[in-house]
Amino acid sequence: MNIDAWVWWLIGAVGLGIPLVLTAMPEFGMFAVGAVAAAITAALGGGVVAQVLVFVVVSVALIAVVRPIANRHRDQRPQHRSGIDALKGRSAVVLERVDGSGGRIKLAGEIWSARSLDADASFEPGRQVDVVEIDGAIAVVM
Prior knowledge:
Shape: rod-shaped
Number of helices: 4
Structural class: alpha+beta
Order of helices and strands: HHHHEEEEE
Strand content: 15-25%
Number of strands: 5
C-alpha cells in the first residue's frame, strides 16, 4: 500500500489536533497548521526537504506571532473579583454603632457584622464606611 506524502502530513495534523483538544495547549494547533501547510506543499509536488521546511517555518512563525498576541490579550482582560474579594474596598452604611468590639453594617444589600480597623474608632448609624477586609464573617471597616 503506497500512501502519498500529503496524506501522512494530514494524519500528522490530526494527530497534533488531538492533544490540542485534550490539553488546550494552542501550540499543538499551530503545529497542526504547519502540518497542513506541508501537506499542501506535498500535494503541489514539493520534495521532502521543502515539506519539512514549510512545516518548520509555518509552525515557528505561528508560535512567534500568535503567542505574544495571545499573551497580551490575556494580560489585558479585566479581572473579575468575586466572593469576599469583591467586597473589599466597597462602601457600606452603618446600621448599629461600629467600634473595635463590633456592630452592624449594610454591605452590598446584606447586613453584616462589623468592627472598626482602629480599636479606638467608632462609627454612628447612618455613616458611610469603607470595607478594608473581611475577617471570617466580620467586615473590618474604617
